[in-house]
Amino acid sequence: MIELKNIVKTYQTGDEKLVALDNISLTIGKSEFTSIMGPSGSGKSTMMNILGLLDHFDSGTYFLNGENVSNLSDNQGAHVRNKEIGFVFQSFNLMPRMTILENVELPMVYAGVPAKERKQRALKALERVGLSDRVKHKPNEISGGQKQRVAIARAIVNEPSVLMADEPTGNLDSKTTIDILRIFQELNADGTTIVMVTHEPEVAIYTKRIVSFFDGTLQDDRLQKPKML
Hints:
Helix content: 25-40%
Low-confidence stretches: none
Order of helices and strands: EEEHEEHEHHHEHEHEE
Structural class: alpha/beta
CATH architecture: 3-Layer(aba) Sandwich
CATH topology: Rossmann fold
CATH superfamily: P-loop containing nucleotide triphosphate hydrolases
Number of helices: 7
CATH class: Alpha Beta
Distance between the termini: 25 Å
Strand content: 25-35%
Largest sheet: 6 strands, mixed
Oligomer: single chain
Strand order of the largest sheet: 6-7-8-3-9-10
């Protein structure tokens, strides 16, 4: 599903060059549920941006679902992103003036899906996350946990190859965090590949694999028996 070979990413700040990722090689297979962990400045967010084709890297090779995506233009990257990757962010990133249904339909608008099919698929995705009764609400009319469930529905509506979640429980209380992780585990059980950035060990224990970064290097990569919900 994901194969990185010798990825290097640097940032120039004044006269100083910061190595954000130092020769990273990593493979993530289909239907895995992987946590990416590490302290601030470890490279985990840079890794997520590269995996999600939101940032370029200096050298190395990246294969996504069998396709070499190392040197795509911005337009090509956007096309692959919309087709292959679903994103869930800490801050939800919902459009405040749109209804819940319209928010979930949005990726399909960009993909050119006809209106009738958009509505059917959006309703199905909302049903999957338990929000069929909220389709006409606006984001400011629902709770934080419900907003994140809308974001998950939006992320899966195009049936992407991989779901990427960046600190998806960072703004949620402990009970709501468990609700979101349960949805992730259910999606993973149905075959969805999930890569999740988190700094919280109590969240990572619900995943099948933990990849740890420190100072731009891959420090640890281990499989585990996840805590099931």
